[in-house]
Amino acid sequence: MRITPFALLVLVLAAAPARAELHITRDHGGYVEEYKTKYKRVRERGERVIIDGICNSACTLVFGIVPINKICVTPRASIGFHQAYYDKAFTFGIKVTSLEGTSDLMSYYPDAVKDWIRRNGGLTTEMKKIKNGAELWKIVDPCPEEW
Fold first, then answer.
1. What three-state secondary structure class fits 12?
2. What is the pLDDT of residue 146?
3. Is residue 131 included in any domain, yes or no?
4. CA atoms of 59 and 62, how far apart (whole Å)
5. pLDDT at residue 132, rounded to an integer
6. Which of 14, 31, 90, 105 is 20 to 30 A from 81 via CA?
């Protein structure tokens, strides 16, 4: 039997494990609707999410959209929460909080995230962070060594 280069490529690809993953290293957030769309695609593809640095603001929606068993954190992970606010381009550069937006954010978070937020005074205009360690591991597992 003669193996063609194409057949060899197919065999190699079939034998290689699929490692679809999203690495979050420095994400300061952005538009909530864009993050909802992004994380829904990640969920639909069954991708893993590795938080290996900053995940603030809208980035934290990952915890409510991607299954928690598909997310892990490294020792460099830092998660930051705050109230939602309107785009400053439309508010003359002033940060105007959105009660509706904040309520929407909270509706996505799993109970473990909501509990941490409540224990730490609720969402405010100031960023509240969870750095890696026991507090964060109550929400999401640490990444395995091989990541």
1. helix
2. 57
3. yes
4. 6
5. 73
6. 90
In a domain, 147, yes or no: no
Contact 53, 28 (CB under 8 A): no
What is the token pair recorded at 85?
């606010």
Residue recorded with tokens 């299954």: 67
Report the distance separating Cα 96 and Cα 69, nearest Å: 35
Backbone angles phi, psi at 33, to 5 degrees: -60, -35
Q: Confirm whether 10 is domain-assigned.
A: no
Is residue 128 one of the residues assigned to a domain? yes
> Radius of gyration of the chain from Cα atoms?
19
Domain containing residue 35: CATH number? 3.90.226.10
Averaged pLDDT score across all residues of the chain: 87
Is the predicted pLDDT of residue 44 greater than 90, yes or no?
Answer: yes
Domain containing 88 equals 20-142
Distances (CA, A) of 76 to 83, 97, 100: 24, 29, 32
Q: Is 47 helix (H, G, I), strand (E, B) or coil?
A: coil
Cα-Cα-Cα-Cα dihedral sign, residues 132, 137, 140, 141: positive
Distant-in-sequence, close-in-space partners of 117: CB < 8 Å, separation ≥ 6: 81, 106, 109, 123, 128
